[in-house]
Structure formats: structure tokens, C-alpha cells
Amino acid sequence: MEYRNYTADGTYWTVRKSRSVYWVVRLKRVGGSYVVQEWWGGYKQAGSAGGAAAQLAYHQAREDVVNEMRGSLHKALERVGLGALPKPAPVRPDPSMLPPADELDDAED
Q1: Contact predicate 46/8, CB 8 Å
Q2: How far, in whole angstroms, is CA 105 from its chain's centroid?
């Protein structure tokens, strides 16, 4: 690849100059060209725009890492039997038909 993905979704933050404004944009390579995914804003100085692009890239990368770790954690919990709660029961009883709580026996196998 001729470029580098800085985020999990294949986009990256950078600076593009138009006239006297340095624009902070998030780009994605599609085919042989770059497509703007998001415009952050414009700055009068290149350094200010570069700093903003770096901060945006850092925060997006941090969010990507947290999501990746969250996914890994959930997979690990599933492997040891501590995964998500079961799906809701397919049939929901009418609350008026349920027995009073004091009439319920402990389930024993």
C-alpha cells in the first residue's frame, strides 16, 4: 500500500491546504483516489491544523483500541463460560397468570 491506515475503519486524519486555509480532514482511499469522510475545520497555520489532526487521530485510535480490547474480553469471557446473559425467553407470560413469589419452590434437579 502507498499509504497507511491510522484507524480501524481504514481512514486517517490529515491536513489539506486550500487557498490560505489549512483544513483538517479524515480521508479514506477508495480505488485510486482519496475520499473525504469528515471535515473537522480550518486553521490559519499549518502547525495548528497538524496538531488538531494528530489529536483527532490519537482519540480515534484510542477508541479503536478500546473497542478491540472490549471484543477480545467478551470472547475470552465466552470461552470460560462467563459470557453474555441468555437470550430472552421466546414466550413472555402474562404477569396476571404468574404464581405469587411465596408459592415458588426452589428448583432442584
Answers
A1: no
A2: 45
Q: Do 68 and 8 contact (CB within 8 A), yes or no?
A: yes
Residue 9 pLDDT greater than 70, yes or no? yes
DSSP strand pairing (33-43 vs 11-18):
unpaired
DSSP code of residue 28: E
Cα–Cα distance between 83 and 81 in angstroms, integer? 6
Tell me if 27 sits within 8 A of 36, measured CB to CB. yes
Sequence-ordered alpha helix ranges (H) in the chain: 46-79
**Coil, strand, or helix at residue 75?**
helix
Residues 6+ apart with CB under 8 A from 94: none
48-84 residue pLDDT tens? 999 999 999 888 888 888 888 888 888 888 888 777 7
Rounded-to-integer distance, Cα 73 and Cα 45, Å: 42
